[in-house]
């Protein structure tokens, strides 16, 4: 079993008006096999947490720590974090010109595992995973995310999640822009990865509808860069009915 | 509008065709609009042009550009001319102004025994069959080239492979003239392998005769100090195919102008290019496909990568579909990948169409950045920075590398790309 531990994390970004603090002391512990939902209104810092865990250069950690089984994640480069078993399914996956999906998937798999996958089983694995996620076979020959629709990009993120088998996955608003059918397909992919690999999941979302398909054991509500409330699945149900107003009103 | 009615040609009026100028029952025909006595788009200028020596209206149509073997027919360059506006004349090392009396780069032929190399006098009848200079530097090279190297692919020859190793050994401004004759029904691959240091104005002509298939790879692998302006012109006869691949990565200033003209029907022209510009380098490619006859096909694709401060690439693609060229199928595209800040890619596709009775014509140009978000995405999947850059650039340029049939050459280019990329991370 592995543990991802975030302690009193403060994160800021550089803006034209100077440095701006976004995360103001976040503490979270996730174990493999667990699913945590992070919910909150826009601008509360949910995506900042996701990008900071993955190591996006835009975010400066001013204090606090992130550790994976005791290892200092903040000391690791972006690729080292991925190799250590962290995966970020991005909210806006970028198009990478000139690199086919096939080439990209194999290169990434090789980097993460430290050795090239066996060609025959790998090709079969990729095909199967694509079929399950209802991704057309000819996507393999297309450049990474190039010309993909929003929903296709999200499916391709989950495809990687299934193939790379991380210890912890951070899903950054994977549900946004998906219709109900796509949402089901994507959720099934996440649930498969969790069942097969004992994966720990940090599910970041604004809306509760994805929680019908992916069941969290823990729900954390982010408001203004901090965890405002924590609880079990019942907290999500309450949010569905009441929205975020009551947190915002308290603040006001 | 009673006056308009009187201008409808009788035939059209008779069959009741709509009175829209330029439209026939079969589609759009622009010639009635354009052919109004010395109009800039067609007519006199075009006709004069195809036999050389014509002076049209240079800026209105590619066909109107003056052509002459006499350097004095071209005005002195100011850098404001349409075809020189991107080129830093100061760095031409006198190719446009000086007497080009330096020693021309040495030429050696290797390959199989099918292709023959000979040297003829500068006034031999072979000169100028497929080439008439269309700028001052090219005309200057014409004036000063003291001899002409001629590679001949004999009639009906199959599988001819010829590499001309062109080695520059001095930085004195020089001129050179090379001719490749692909005789009827022959099949050949010719590599022009430019290495060493040179300040060179060069004319290369390709006479691609009926049903011949000629692939040319012009490789600019110069040392850092080289200056090279090369005007490469092809005549492509009926049923022939001509594939030209320009590969530029060496030299301080390289300007390669491939142009290809159809002289017979059912012929095909493919112009490909690959360039990789480093800090301070100027790599320019200006190409011209002249659809002068009917039922021919052309395809153009140039791809370039740029990195470092003041790396500058220029791509200008002129495709002209003349009035007579009905049934033409043509496409041109340029794609640039900017790897670092401080680099500049200029890309200008020009498509002139004088008849609407064509199968297809299109152009495209894109210039994209390899930016931090790409890098983050790939690294977030475990791929280290160096590999990530390599992956992107290699994938991007590979489309052109694949066009080169020769394995050894492909490998050499792949290695070169790796070396260029290794320089990026330093």
From TrEMBL, chain A:
Give the family from UniProt: Belongs to the ABC transporter superfamily. Ycf16 family.
**InterPro entries the UniProt entry points to:** AAA+_ATPase, ABC_transporter-like_ATP-bd, FeS-cluster_ATPase_SufC, P-loop_NTPase
Supply the name of the protein: ABC transporter ATP-binding protein
Give the source's domain of life in one word. Answer: Bacteria
Outline the extent of the ABC transporter domain: 4-249
Q: Which UniProt keywords apply?
A: ATP-binding, Nucleotide-binding
> Has keyword 4Fe-4S?
no
* Pfam assignment, any one: ABC_tran
| UniProt GO molecular function | ATP binding
Q: Which SMART domains does the record match to this protein? A: AAA
Species of provenance: Glutamicibacter nicotianae (Arthrobacter nicotianae)
**Gene3D superfamilies tied to this protein:** P-loop containing nucleotide triphosphate hydrolases
UniProtKB/TrEMBL annotation, chain B:
- Which residue intervals define the domain SUF system FeS cluster assembly SufBD core in the entry? 167-396
Highest taxon above the source species: Bacteria
Annotated region Disordered: the residues are: 1-72
Q: Which SUPFAM superfamilies match?
A: Stabilizer of iron transporter SufD
InterPro entries the record matches = Fe-S_cluster_assembly_SufBD, SUF_FeS_clus_asmbl_SufBD_core, SUF_FeS_clus_asmbl_SufBD_sf, SUF_FeS_clus_asmbl_SufD
Pfam families cross-referenced by the UniProt entry: SUFBD_core
Which family does the similarity line name? Belongs to the iron-sulfur cluster assembly SufBD family.
Q: Which PANTHER family would you find in this protein's record? A: PROTEIN ABCI7, CHLOROPLASTIC
Q: What name has this protein been given in UniProt? A: Fe-S cluster assembly protein SufD
Q: List the source organism.
A: Glutamicibacter nicotianae
Q: Which gene encodes it?
A: sufD
């Amino acid at each position: 079993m592995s543990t991802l531990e975030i302690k009193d994390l403060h994160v800021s970004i550089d803006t034209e008006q100077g440095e701006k603090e976004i995360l103001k002391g976040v503490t979270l512990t996730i174990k493999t096999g667990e699913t945590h939902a992070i919910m909150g209104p826009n601008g509360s810092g949910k995506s900042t947490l996701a990008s900071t865990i993955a190591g996006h250069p835009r975010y400066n950690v001013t204090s606090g720590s992130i550790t994976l089984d005791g290892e200092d994640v903040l000391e690791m480069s972006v690729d080292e974090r991925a190799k250590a078993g962290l995966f970020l399914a991005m909210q806006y996956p970028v198009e990478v010109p000139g690199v086919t999906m096939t080439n990209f998937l194999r290169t990434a798999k090789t980097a993460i595992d430290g050795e090239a996958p066996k060609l025959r089983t790998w090709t079969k694995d990729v095909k199967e995973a694509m079929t399950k996620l209802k991704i057309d076979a000819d996507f393999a020959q297309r450049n990474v995310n190039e010309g993909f629709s929003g929903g296709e990009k999200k499916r391709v993120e989950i495809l990687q999640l299934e193939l790379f088998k991380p210890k912890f996955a951070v899903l950054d608003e994977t549900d946004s822009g998906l219709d109900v059918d796509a949402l089901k397909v994507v959720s099934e992919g996440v649930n498969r990865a969790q069942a097969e690999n004992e994966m720990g999941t940090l599910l970041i979302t604004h809306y509760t509808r994805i929680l019908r398909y992916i069941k969290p054991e823990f729900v954390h509500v982010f408001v203004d860069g901090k965890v405002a409330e924590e609880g079990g699945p019942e907290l999500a149900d309450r949010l569905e009915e009441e929205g975020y107003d009551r947190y915002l009103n308290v603040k006001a | 509008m009673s006056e308009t009615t009187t201008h409808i040609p009788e035939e059209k009026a008779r069959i009741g065709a709509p009175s829209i100028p330029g439209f026939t029952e079969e589609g759009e025909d622009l010639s009635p609009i354009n052919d109004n006595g010395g109009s800039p788009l067609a007519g006199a200028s075009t006709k004069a042009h195809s036999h050389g020596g014509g002076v049209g209206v240079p800026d209105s149509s590619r066909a109107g550009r003056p052509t002459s073997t006499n350097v004095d027919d071209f005005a002195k360059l100011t850098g404001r001319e349409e075809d020189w506006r991107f080129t830093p004349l100061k760095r031409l090392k006198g190719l446009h102004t000086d007497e080009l009396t330096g020693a021309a780069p040495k030429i050696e032929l290797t390959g199989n025994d099918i292709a023959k190399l000979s040297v003829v006098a500068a006034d031999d009848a072979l000169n100028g069959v497929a080439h008439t200079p269309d700028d001052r530097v090219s005309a200057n090279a014409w004036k000063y080239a003291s001899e002409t190297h001629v590679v001949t692919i004999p009639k009906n020859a199959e599988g001819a492979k010829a590499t001309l190793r062109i080695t520059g050994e001095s930085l004195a401004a020089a001129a050179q003239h090379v001719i490749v004759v692909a005789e009827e029904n022959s099949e050949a691959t010719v590599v022009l392998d430019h290495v060493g240091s040179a300040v060179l104005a060069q004319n290369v002509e390709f006479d691609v005769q009926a049903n011949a298939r000629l692939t040319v790879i012009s490789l600019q692998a110069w040392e850092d100090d080289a200056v090279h302006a090369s005007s490469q012109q092809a005549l492509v006869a009926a049923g022939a195919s001509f594939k030209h691949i320009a590969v530029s990565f060496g030299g301080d200033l390289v300007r390669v102008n491939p142009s290809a003209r159809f002289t017979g029907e059912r012929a095909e022209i493919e112009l490909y290019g690959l360039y990789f510009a480093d800090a301070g380098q100027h790599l320019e490619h200006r190409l011209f496909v002249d659809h002068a006859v009917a039922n021919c096909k052309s395809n153009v694709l140039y791809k370039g990568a740029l990195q470092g401060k003041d790396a500058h690439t220029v791509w200008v693609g002129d495709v002209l579909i003349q009035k007579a060229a009905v049934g033409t199928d043509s496409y041109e595209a340029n794609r640039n990948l900017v790897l670092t800040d401080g680099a500049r890619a200029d890309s200008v596709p020009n498509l002139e169409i004088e008849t609407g009775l064509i199968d297809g014509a299109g152009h495209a140009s894109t210039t994209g950045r390899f930016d931090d978000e790409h890098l983050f995405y790939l690294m977030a999947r475990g791929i280290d920075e160096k590999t990530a850059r390599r992956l992107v650039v290699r994938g991007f340029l590979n489309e052109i590398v694949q066009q080169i049939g020769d394995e050894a050459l492909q490998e050499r280019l792949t290695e070169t790309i790796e070396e260029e990329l290794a320089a990026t991370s330093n």
